[in-house]
Write a structure and sequence with these properties.
Length: about 150
Amino acid sequence: VHLSLLYETYHVDFYILFTVALRCVTSAVGVIHVTGYVGSAVKVSCSYDQGYESYEKYLCKNDCGSNDDVLITTSNPVTSKYRIHDDKTARIFTTSISDLRSVDAGKYWCGVTIFGIDIYTEVELKLVQGFFKIHYIQFCCSKLIK
């Protein structure tokens, strides 16, 4: 009887641990891919489920393991580089990142602060260089050729 109780307790603990681990790394939408241009701005929009309208939302970089990784929150929605807006009716929060530099490329996380482990959605930001120069040359040269 004692061995059976030990097995059941282990089984329940494993199930709880497994569920929490999955919740930490998954989301309903998968990875959000965003492309921006160096020197310009980009918007990252993240959806969330009904019932989380009043919860704090944020954008972080790296592994979101510390407060230093958090770039912007809905409780402090404006900095020199980031702005965040929560459309509670549409259940989408949008973060604007301005003055993009090559170091801004990479992995971000949209987060919703909840009791326990926060809800995350992965964001991959890709940056393209030289868009404005190429666009200007094409515009300039097409005028000259005509």
